[in-house]
Each structure stands twice: as structure tokens, then as C-alpha cells.
TrEMBL record:
Keyword Protein biosynthesis: no
Gene3D superfamilies: 1.20.140.160
Organism: Negativicoccus succinicivorans DORA_17_25
InterPro entries according to UniProt: Cro/C1-type_HTH, RNA_pol_sigma-70_dom, RNA_pol_sigma70_r3, RNA_pol_sigma70_r4, RNA_pol_sigma_r3/r4-like
PROSITE patterns registered for this protein in UniProt: HTH_CROC1 (PS50943)
Protein name in the entry: HTH cro/C1-type domain-containing protein
Length: 156
């Protein structure tokens, strides 16, 4: 049996199933791997949702670092480890730390507690909910807003 190795929201799990079915069908029809926009159009959702479902699929079964990465180009496929690259402990670490400090300073106390708890202390939403005496759903909503703020800030 295959199981999710990490907690993925039900709507994403369901969308993941639709995306995979659409990928297979479109690949059979068109004799080529479908692009994200083609999958989105076929199942009637946004491209971002398709990407989210595809990213979540990595939580369904572990992926080897030696596995080939799909590419839209006709070049030779490369392995996941080649795509990820190696970690450099230099200026980029300092830049990321500085970015996170500036970002968290713009959050209110509750948002900051949730952000730090979820992403730095690796606490579950349920554990944070108990700790902060609010519902898990509230944690989820605030976390989603914080991640959206983080994306906007990062894109600047």
C-alpha cells in the first residue's frame, strides 16, 4: 500500500488524484507529457492549484535523489540531486536569515508565534492550537495568510 508520508490536506489529496488521472489521459491522447496549463484547463482549476497538487505528491511516496527529473526540454534528463545542488554556507545563509528577521518583524505576535512554531520548531498545528488556546482551523488559516505574506515579501 501507498500512504502519505506527511500530512497533506484532503482537498489537495483529492486534487492530486484528479491531476494524476488527467496527466495520464492527456499523455495518452497527445502522445506527450502535458504541461501544467493543459492539466489545469482539463480539470477546470488554476495552474497554481495543479502545481500545489504536484508538489504534494512528493509526500505520497519518497523520491530517490537519483531519480530523473522531468523536464520540458528535449535535453537529457538530470537527477534530482543535480537539480537541488549542494548547500553553500556563505552569504546566502546570511541573506535568508536577514530576510526572515525582517519578515517576522512585520508580523503580529500571534502570526509570529505560529510562523516560528510551525517552521522553526516544527510543531504541528494541533500542538500550537493547544499551546495558544485557539482552534487548529484558526492556526491553519493564520498559517496560510502568513505564507501568502511571505511569498509576496519574497517576490519584492
Amino acid at each position: 500500500d501507498k500512504v502519505w508520508t506527511m500530512r497533506v490536506p484532503r482537498r489537495v489529496q483529492e486534487l492530486n488524484k484528479k491531476v494524476n488521472e488527467a496527466k495520464l489521459l492527456l499523455e495518452q491522447q497527445n502522445k506527450k507529457k502535458p504541461k501544467v496549463n493543459e492539466i489545469a484547463e482539463y480539470i477546470g482549476c488554476r495552474e497554481e492549484e495543479v502545481l500545489e497538487a504536484l508538489e504534494a505528491s512528493y509526500g505520497y511516496q519518497p523520491v530517490s535523489l537519483d531519480s530523473p527529473v522531468n523536464s520540458d526540454s528535449e535535453e537529457a534528463e538530470i537527477s534530482l540531486i543535480d537539480k537541488i545542488g549542494s548547500q553553500e554556507n556563505n552569504f546566502s545563509d546570511i541573506e535568508y536569515k536577514d530576510f526572515i528577521e525582517k519578515f517576522t518583524s512585520k508580523l503580529n505576535e500571534l502570526e509570529r508565534n505560529i510562523f516560528e512554531g510551525r517552521f522553526f520548531k516544527e510543531k504541528t498545528q494541533s500542538a500550537l492550537a493547544k499551546e495558544l488556546d485557539i482552534s487548529q482551523m484558526t492556526i491553519s488559516r493564520i498559517e496560510r495568510k502568513v505564507v501568502q505574506k511571505l511569498r509576496k515579501e519574497y517576490e519584492r
